[in-house]
């Protein structure tokens, strides 16, 4: 290592900024798709690839979780990681969709599709630790803890200055992948524009405990305030709650004591799972549809939340990102085999075109749900009621919706599988 402050020159073909779930998934896929490609990952958190998930994972009642679609399970199976992830995954066997004050409802059951689950709920920490641990067996340069000081891209690749161990290193890469979310500032520093539609809503997330066991049933209940989603989470009586509400309500509900909060939740959700008995630490964040109109330019590409952030109503955000990461990995591996420049925007065009179709479909799907079930949608309640009843009675429509939730209506690319 050079003396503090001295620049050190390094080169790799792909430099991934962000070693979270998105960045680590891409790095792992590249290690499988193109094991001779030089890849480096920059991560600010002090995590090393030799981590043991079982030793470092501390299950917490307040753990943040992600809903993985069945299609995402197939991707992680292709990457050889699913058996490890499955140890901490809770299966969603059935989904129940309803609207408060209406008798219509729709149900989806994994058994109808010959699967053991429609999806899975996994603690973010467990998923992340297993991804990072898997990278310990891959030929990936792990720069951690480190942060990007500056970056610029061109037809020849990207020049990135990284601060690590008190020294500033100068890196050149053929392709810079921005995978550290939409709030890091690197996206804006590189000059990418972002389009945002504010929903004037917040999502409140927490763990709640019910008097009746969840039995693998997930709920999406639409209310005048917004959808209330309950996802089965680890212990038999615990749920991951995602409660969407107007911006004017979030501050008040965050300030409620636990008893008052659970009473309001009970009134909106009902008694299908008995009494709400406990709630953990609550978190909230503003909701909006955010997209980078041009997520790539010569030498750099945005992925995951840096490229698109969706409303959580359909639970498709990370699943959409993961499919895109696998397409990008396959595209880069093919270009590497063919001797094409990874910096050339033309090289990325097949990935960009295919993934944008997926993005448009999921955005249209989730945005449509919000508009139809919004209290100000203009759709009469009885029409929505009939729609849920018709959906429940129509096997074809129900099958399509289930496959949409399972992430199977779009092609996936992982290790050559489609």
From TrEMBL:
In which pathway does this enzyme or protein participate?
Cofactor biosynthesis; ubiquinone biosynthesis
Name of this chain's protein: 2-octaprenyl-6-methoxyphenol hydroxylase /2-octaprenyl-3-methyl-6-methoxy-1,4-benzoquinol hydroxylase
User: Which co-factor is required?
Assistant: FAD
Family, per the entry? Answer: Belongs to the UbiH/COQ6 family.
Q: Tell me the GO BP annotations in alphabetical order.
A: ubiquinone biosynthetic process
Provide this UniProt record's keywords sorted from A to Z: FAD, Flavoprotein, Monooxygenase, Oxidoreductase
GO molecular function terms listed in the Swiss-Prot or TrEMBL record: 2-octaprenyl-6-methoxyphenol hydroxylase activity; FAD binding
Q: Where are the transmembrane segments?
A: none
Q: Which InterPro entries match?
A: FAD-bd, FAD/NAD-bd_sf, UbiH/COQ6, UbiH/COQ6_monooxygenase
Keyword Glycosyltransferase tagged: no
Q: Where is the FAD-binding domain?
A: 12-338
């Amino acid at each position: 290592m050079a003396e503090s402050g001295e620049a050190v020159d390094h080169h790799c073909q792909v430099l991934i900024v962000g070693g979270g779930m998105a960045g680590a998934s891409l790095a792992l896929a590249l290690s499988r798709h193109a094991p001779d490609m030089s890849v480096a990952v920059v991560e600010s958190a002090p995590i090393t690839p030799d981590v043991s998930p079982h030793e470092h994972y501390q299950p917490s009642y307040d753990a943040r979780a992600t809903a993985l679609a069945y299609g995402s399970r197939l991707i992680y199976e292709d990457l050889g990681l699913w058996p490890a992830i499955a140890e901490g995954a809770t299966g969603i066997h059935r989904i129940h969709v309803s609207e408060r004050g209406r008798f219509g409802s729709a149900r989806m059951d994994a058994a109808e599709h010959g699967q053991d689950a429609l999806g899975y709920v996994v603690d973010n920490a467990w998923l992340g630790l297993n991804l990072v641990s898997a990278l310990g067996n891959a030929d990936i340069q792990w720069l951690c803890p480190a942060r990007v000081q500056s970056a610029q891209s061109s037809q020849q690749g990207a020049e990135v200055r990284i601060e690590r161990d008190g020294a500033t290193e100068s890196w050149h890469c053929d392709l810079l992948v921005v995978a550290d979310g939409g709030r890091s500032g690197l996206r804006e520093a590189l000059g990418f524009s972002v389009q945002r539609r504010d929903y004037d809503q917040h999502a409140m997330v927490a763990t709640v405990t019910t008097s009746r066991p969840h039995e693998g049933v997930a709920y999406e209940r639409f209310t005048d305030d917004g959808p209330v989603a309950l996802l089965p989470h680890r212990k038999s009586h615990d749920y991951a709650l995602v409660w969407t509400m107007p911006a004017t309500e979030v501050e008040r509900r965050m300030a409620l004591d636990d008893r008052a909060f659970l009473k309001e939740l009970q009134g909106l959700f009902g008694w299908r799972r008995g009494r709400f008995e406990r709630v953990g630490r609550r978190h909230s964040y503003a909701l909006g549809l955010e997209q980078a109109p041009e997520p790539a330019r010569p030498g750099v590409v945005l992925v995951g939340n840096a490229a698109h952030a969706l409303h959580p109503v359909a639970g498709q955000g990370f699943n959409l990102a993961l499919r895109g990461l696998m397409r990008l990995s396959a595209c880069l591996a093919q270009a590497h085999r063919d001797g094409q420049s990874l910096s050339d925007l033309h090289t990325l065009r097949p990935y960009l075109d295919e993934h944008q179709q997926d993005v448009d479909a999921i955005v249209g799907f989730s945005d449509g749900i919000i508009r139809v079930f919004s209290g100000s949608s203009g759709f009469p309640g009885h029409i929505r009621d009939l729609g849920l009843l018709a959906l429940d009675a129509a096997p074809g429509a129900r099958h399509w919706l289930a496959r949409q939730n399972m992430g199977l209506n779009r092609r996936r690319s992982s290790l050559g599988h489609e």
